[in-house]
Amino acid sequence: MLSVGLNWIYIILTTFCAGSGIGYLAEKKLRYRIRGLDSILMAGLVAVTVYAEVFSLFYKVGAVANGILAAVCLGVFLLLRRQISRRMGDWWRETPAVKKVLLPVLFLLWTYFSSRGYMAYDSDLYHGQSIRWIEEYGVVPGLGNLHERFAYNSAAFAVNALYSMKWLLGRSLHTASGFFALLLSSTALELGRTWKEKKLRLADFAMIGAVYYLATIWDEVTAPSSDYLIMCTLFFIVIKWLLCLERDSGPRREGVVPYALLCVAGVYALTLKLTAGLILLLVLKPAVSLLREKRWGEILLYLGLGLLVCLPWMVRTVVISGWLLYPFPALDLFSVDWKMPAGPIALDAAQIKTWGRALNNAALVDMPMREWFPGWFAALSGMEKLLILGDLACIPLFMGYALLSLLKKKKENLDILLVLVTVIGSYGFWQYSAPILRYGYAYVLLVDLLLAGIILQNLRRQQVLYAFVCLYGCYKLVMMGDYIRGNYLIDAYVWQQDYGSYELTAYELGGITFYHPAMGDRTGYADFPAAPTRPRIELRGDGLEDGFRPAGQ
Description:
The protein is mainly alpha-helical. Helix content is 65%, strand content 3%. The chain is built from 22 helices and 4 strands. The strands form 2 sheets. Strands 1-2 form a two-stranded antiparallel sheet. Strands 3-4 form a two-stranded antiparallel sheet. It is globular and about 70 Å long. The N and C termini lie far apart (49 Å).
């Protein structure tokens, strides 16, 4: 816990300074003030992640990367110390006393959860090794040839590597998942306003979904999986979007800036996990406004910001795999000697899909949905079945709501319809492609809760949800207490639980020792370089930094 807490203090300081710099530029250039410390921290997380990805293109992400980051953040703090002091003063005065008490409680709880728990299978399969490659070399040409999963180039691995502190501690921390959960928890504390005002906003239903999700993953966030980062980011974007819509419906209109900035955060979500790309449907709202008003300068600015966020990630993907997007071999734009063969890429994509559909046979990738869906649904737990049935029921309800809005010409409903189209489209893509619940919890919950929110608001029966939240909250508090009681003897109060250890077999390639599992397919983090299998590849030069290419090229 201690190592996690100290690591998070460093993350908070650096992301707050980076986010404050972005906030200052937004005020100067866009005449918009980013509200909320959680929004400042999220802006900072986007900035430092992009920084880590850019840095990895030139050098390993370790001591030098952190030294430069710390120096820049110190410079920002010194330059903006008055604005930062004023912002912190405003936050302290405006924050309710209950929230001031709950924030340190949440901090302690999430350090406990992040220090121990279930390490996701894929973290010992390839997450840990992917992070270590960034720590040791930054980016290596053709790394995907060593193992195809290394080509799943999530920005989550870059931010984990930046804050792992292996260069300082001699061991690699993996605290980013827990920190994103902590940040989303702080955002969800906005629900306290609901109890005070006795009125549920649509954003509150999204927050309830976030709380449900956080209460589901608390025993898993010790793993450096991209799934937790992307789900927390998607919840954050939708919550903030709905809060902006609420302010727009009152006397204080937001304008187009916050929506455009949230779309930039949507591009960031895409770099965390490519399957989140449909969140960018939200760009229609700011795009229509900017085009109608012919604000060409701002259009170029936001396009430039989006490109700045995604370009380093795309370059990393090309360097690692030889393809622009992985695993989509249809986009064949580059001719490099380290390019991964198209056949294994297609096989890997098929394996991901069929595994998600509970088929576990890549040859069945073209099986119609009507044939695989019943078996997939039967394998879900009882609560998961209820959530999916709710999603399926929500689709015709959404169609009725959309038709009614169009017939009655309720233009004020168009913004809500765009959010619904985005989450339902994202759910549909997830359901058809690789429907493992941890890949799509945000979509599953948001579809259910946003439609339920619209219905309950119109029926003025919000007390139904009050009762559910209270009952579910009590149940989860009991479960949390039981979890803490069952795990408090685990020796993780100083150091975070480490990656798993496995029996590995050594072999040589070009005079360099590699490792693969004696049994199974997991390798952990400690033995490096390691991969689940012994591939048919060759070195491109004399060292690992030169990368890999398929054998015989």
